[in-house]
Amino acid sequence: MFIVGAVLPIPVWYMQRRYPLSLWKYIHIPVLISSTALMPPAPTTTVTSWFFVCFVVNFVAYRHRYTWWQKYAFALSAALDSSVGLASVFIYLVFYLTSTEMPSYWGTKTNHCPLAANSGYKNYKNFS
Question: I want to staple 42 with a disulfide (CB 3.0 to 4.6 A). Which of 4, 46, 73, 127 is the partner?
Answer without folding.
Answer: 46
